[in-house]
Design a protein that fits this description.
Chain lengths: 433, 286, 295
């Protein structure tokens, strides 16, 4: 509420001075909101020093993210409350295109962040660039011990731990209880039969929709078939037989899933034109707004023809520490890591935003244990594979999705295009060096 | 062109004008279809976001999305940033370019055509590739996160276009008009201000609007070089609004995009009466 | 009489040239410097000069894929420019007919597409117009009893879709330029032409077009460059990550993006950029003739 008022005041102030003097408006805006107090370039260090002396070592930790502001606010509120006594405050700032931004600001102590919170798949990129510090000496077993092993593994690279996982996401089977007829199938074959019987493309009504040409959304099939997009050593696997089988298998589903664009499939589901969607927790607020009677099932409850379950990627959102912050603000950072890893943060996140906490202890909370969606994600976590976090993964999305689009949308022969995109992937990886 | 006409000719003209009006109305309508679509989205409640039915009118008209943009986002801060940046850029770019194009149009000097051609070729370098270099430069001189830095980037990007565009128009203004005043003792700047600019008003305005719209709609530099959400421009703030899967709301996004565009249209509507050259309106003939 | 003076014109254009130097020339030089280094993910801060090996690798990328992208780019530029100039010319003429009272309103409405940030327009078209389920075009087709069309799945329809969108976004500017230029034509020319009995066509060919040429040439040439290096439309409409539409249209910029820039190898992608820049310069020498001034 306070923030709102300050924003409105800020707005009024600015409008008032808008046609008077540009500079006045600028200072007006900054004064109202302390958070944004920032000076240009050179003067910054001195200002920071004086600030520290004056307020008896109040340390501010700036964390960049590219996620949902409500989630970050939940974290910030809890962390700030628990660190208030220690004179540490964290502030979250949203940066769109975080990967590109960190390439520019990653080692910039004056303008850049101290820490960042982001999905783990870009970890390798940041480590190789040399902007991240390992956190072994800042987050000990007391901090890391209670975190789900899968999430901890996702935050390590080349044998060193870089991220403290906060929450994780997996794809889920989300369905509209009003529209779904009968019981949910337990095998993908039965699911397909249901789709065939209940889809009318011409009328625009669908049984199940999925972003069928997005690599992340087809990964449950690829991983379930035993294929891979890229292996641990950085070898692409697009022309691997298992991957090809999975892509070919996914194709028959794709034919019944509209164009597979994010906007299309989410709207179809929210408009009750699709009975089910394969999607993640980020869809929930839209679904709630649309007033849908939502049912949730883990993807690992669906068995593929080979007897294995669908195995989605898991995306772990974790915090990493920039090198300069690890050197200059080590104590504060250590405290922040400890506070963020606490089970209470996970409980708040789960209750406010349906995030699946990385901390095992959070699940002891009744609210969390009773949350259908979170428990479905936790269940999926057993079969889910963390997305690869090697830097080569960043160039794999384009060829992998090129392959999917060529097969699903342009009707090309899988064997030919798989070779083609495998080669493209190899070139892209070679180009990185 | 208005010559005395016989009454049959008058009717013919009327018919012609009617046909022309119908043509322009339908053209405007076709051009506006996507925008009307956005408008109807923005006025609908958040539930019926994109509808599969063919309709322009939302079932329930609400201004909720506009209210949310104004109250939940720092809309007025962004608006004022946009205004400050575009006005400052326009002043710098047009100020510098008017003088330069006057020089290129009125003087003959060694290297003149060379520089003009070089400028044109330089303009071919994709701007997005310049980002990293400018970043390094600004970081060294401490101009990141400052409006002045952005104004330099924007003005520099639009400078070549402005010079070339105004020079082309200046060339059409007969030099003889200036020479009379020069004999009366007017200096270059006086000439420029009192004679050339009024005569070249349409070109100056077109160029200024071009600069204004460029700044107004630019988001990549704005979100990369400014480090705080509070210092974003409207386009930058909007870019950030739609970027993540969690909060993406089409009605909200449409409302925001309409609100970004409207100030430009108002300005555009207002300046049009100045879009007449002194050359034709004032009866100065060459 | 044009004056000649050695220092004054330089002094007048100096501020503008300094700006251009900072924002355009310096980045080109810096890109040239980076193209000689091994700056990439693995040498982010500790890169060093390695000579011309990036150029060797970059030239290897000029394969058949590149050539077909170059071909697409040229067609794309030519078709776009031809349509833009012709359409804008006629619309601007229509807006300037005497006795048209609502012309200010029309002009404002026609400017609307230009007043929106590019990515907004593109997203709006992708979802609002071309989408198979919710796009207006498909809704109209369905209402007419025809089958849905996925406009962006194949190359030819996708090319046309991109073309239409580009025209929609770029026409307002061109109309405005020509409209502004039309104001400079002395109306007395038309009066005497009218007296001579010159028809609509003759007036256009002998008066309007020659008078406009010099004024709009810079704008047309600049727009040609912009169209040549257009990236947003094709990328956001057909090849955005997670939203590939199925079409495999490539222009040289999208090709370079896909083949060099995604790799975070700044050395290599700088070399590719410089090569493309040189290509554009060569291309521009061809259009140079349009700029010759009558001196």
């Amino acid at each position: 509420m306070k923030k709102k008022i300050s924003l409105i005041m800020c707005g009024l102030l600015v409008v008032g001075t808008l046609f008077g003097c540009g500079n006045a408006a600028q200072t007006g805006g900054t004064e109202v909101n302390n958070e944004s107090a920032q000076t240009d370039g050179e003067g910054t260090e001195e200002v920071e020093e004086t600030k520290q002396d004056a307020s008896t070592e109040q340390t501010e930790i700036k964390i960049w993210h590219d996620g949902d502001e409500a989630i970050m606010k939940t974290i910030a509120d809890r962390v700030n409350a628990s660190l208030a006594e220690k004179k540490i405050t964290v502030s979250f700032e949203k940066k769109t295109g975080l990967t590109d931004q960190l390439q520019l600001y990653g080692n910039d102590a004056a303008n850049g962040p101290d820490m960042y919170l982001y999905a783990h798949d870009s970890l390798g990129t940041f480590v190789e660039m040399g902007i991240l510090a390992p956190i072994d000496d800042m987050a000990d077993a007391g901090v890391m011990g209670d975190l789900l092993p899968m999430t901890v593994e996702a935050g390590s690279y080349n044998g060193e731990q870089y991220l403290v996982p906060v929450y994780f996401e997996t794809l889920l089977f989300l369905y509209n209880k009003e529209l779904w007829n009968g019981d949910l199938p337990t095998s993908t074959e039965d699911l397909y039969e249901y789709m065939k019987a209940n889809t009318d493309t011409a009328a625009g009504t669908y049984a199940v929709v999925n972003q069928h040409s997005t690599a992340y959304n087809v990964a449950p099939f690829i991983n379930g078939f035993g294929g891979y997009i890229i292996d641990k050593d950085g070898n692409p696997g697009l022309n691997n037989q298992e991957t090809k089988d999975a892509v070919e298998y996914n194709k028959k589903f794709a034919a019944l899933q509209a164009d597979g664009d994010y906007n299309t499939v989410t709207t179809l589901f929210n408009e009750k034109k699709a009975a089910a969607i394969i999607g993640g927790p980020w869809l929930i607020s839209g679904i709630k707004d649309a007033g849908i009677d939502l049912g949730i099932k883990s993807l690992s409850d669906f068995v593929l023809p080979n007897g294995k379950a669908l195995a989605p990627y898991s995306g772990v959102q974790g915090v990493g520490v920039m090198k300069h912050a690890a050197e200059n603000k080590k104590e504060a950072v250590t405290e922040v890591l400890k506070a963020i890893a606490a089970p209470e943060v996970g409980i708040d996140l789960a209750n406010n935003s349906n995030c699946a906490p990385a901390n095992v202890k959070s699940y002891e909370d009744a609210g969390v244990a009773g949350n259908e969606m979170i428990m479905a994600m936790k269940e999926t976590a057993d079969t889910a594979q963390p997305m690869p976090n090697i830097p080569q993964m960043s160039v794999m999305w384009a060829p992998a999705e090129g392959l999917l689009a060529a097969v699903n949308k342009s009707g090309e022969d899988i064997n030919t295009v798989a070779e083609e995109f495998e080669k493209q992937a190899e070139t892209a990886i070679a180009d990185m060096q | 062109m208005v010559i005395k006409m016989k009454s049959s000719k008058k009717i013919k003209t009327k018919l012609k004008l009617t046909a022309l009006n119908i043509f322009l109305i339908s053209l405007s309508f076709i051009g506006l279809v996507p925008i009307l679509y956005a408008l109807s989205l923005s006025l609908s409640g958040s539930v019926g976001a994109l509808s599969a039915d063919l309709t322009f009118l939302p079932e329930k008209v609400t201004l909720e999305n506009y209210r949310r943009i104004i109250t939940e986002e720092p809309f007025f801060t962004w608006l004022s940033n946009s205004v400050i940046l575009s006005v400052a850029t326009m002043t710098v770019a047009i100020g510098f370019a008017v003088v330069a194009s006057y020089a290129f149009s009125r003087f003959r000097f060694k290297g003149r055509t060379g520089v003009l051609k070089l400028l044109l070729v330089l303009n071919a370098f994709p701007q997005i590739l310049s980002m990293f270099a400018i970043f390094r430069l600004f970081k060294t001189v401490g101009m990141l996160d400052s409006k002045a830095g952005l104004v330099i980037v924007y003005a520099g990007s639009m400078c070549i276009f402005s010079i070339w565009n105004m020079k082309g128009y200046f060339d059409t203004i007969p030099v003889e008009i200036e020479e009379a005043s020069r004999i009366d003792g007017a200096g270059d700047f006086q000439l420029l201000w009192k004679i050339v600019i009024p005569l070249a008003m349409p070109a100056v305005i077109v160029t200024a609007v071009m600069v204004l719209i460029f700044v107004w709609n630019e988001y990549l530099f704005a979100t990369t070089f400014m480090l705080n959400e509070k210092s974003y421009t409207l386009a930058g703030g909007l870019y950030q609004l739609q970027s993540n899967d969690y909060g993406r709301s089409w009605p909200l996004f449409s409302a925001a995009s309409i609100m970004v565009s409207v100030p430009i249209l108002i300005i555009f509507f207002c300046i049009q009466k100045y879009m007449v050259s002194g050359l034709t309106a004032g009866g100065v003939k060459g | 009489m044009r004056r000649s003076n050695k220092r004054l014109p330089w002094a007048y254009s100096l501020p503008a040239l300094i700006l251009v130097g900072i924002v355009i020339v310096f980045p080109i030089i810096y890109t040239g410097y980076l193209s000689l280094t091994n700056m990439n993910l693995y040498h982010w801060f500790d890169f060093e000069i390695i000579g011309f090996s990036n150029y060797e690798r970059a030239l290897l990328k000029l394969d058949s894929g590149f050539l077909s992208a170059l071909f697409t780019t040229i067609i794309w530029t030519a078709v776009n420019m031809a349509l833009q100039v012709v359409l804008a010319y006629f619309i601007a003429m229509a807006l300037n007919v005497d006795g048209l009272r609502l012309n200010r309103l029309y002009k404002t409405l026609l400017m609307f597409p230009w007043a929106m940030p590019a990515y907004v327009s593109i997203l709006l078209w992708r979802v609002g117009m071309y989408n198979t389920e919710f796009g207006l075009l498909n809704k109209v087709l369905t209402a007419l009893g025809m089958e849905k069309v996925n406009f962006l799945a194949e190359n030819t329809p996708a090319f046309i879709s991109c073309l239409v969108l580009n025209l929609w976004m770029a026409l307002p500017f061109m109309i405005m330029m020509i409209d502004g230029a039309l104001q400079s034509i002395d109306k007395s020319y038309y009066e005497s032409a009218q007296l001579d009995g010159a028809g609509f066509l003759a007036r256009n060919i002998y008066i309007t077009i020659p008078a406009l040429r010099g004024i709009i040439a810079p704008a047309v040439i600049m727009t040609t460059f912009t169209t040549f290096k257009q990236f947003d439309i094709i990328y956001l409409l057909t090849m955005q990550k997670g939203a590939l539409s199925g079409a495999t249209l490539q222009t040289i910029i999208t090709y370079a993006h896909q083949n060099a820039f995604v790799s975070n190898n700044y050395g290599l992608s700088s070399a590719v950029s410089i090569i493309i820049f040189v290509l554009i310069v060569v291309f521009s020498l061809g259009t140079n003739r349009g700029l010759r001034e009558e001196s």
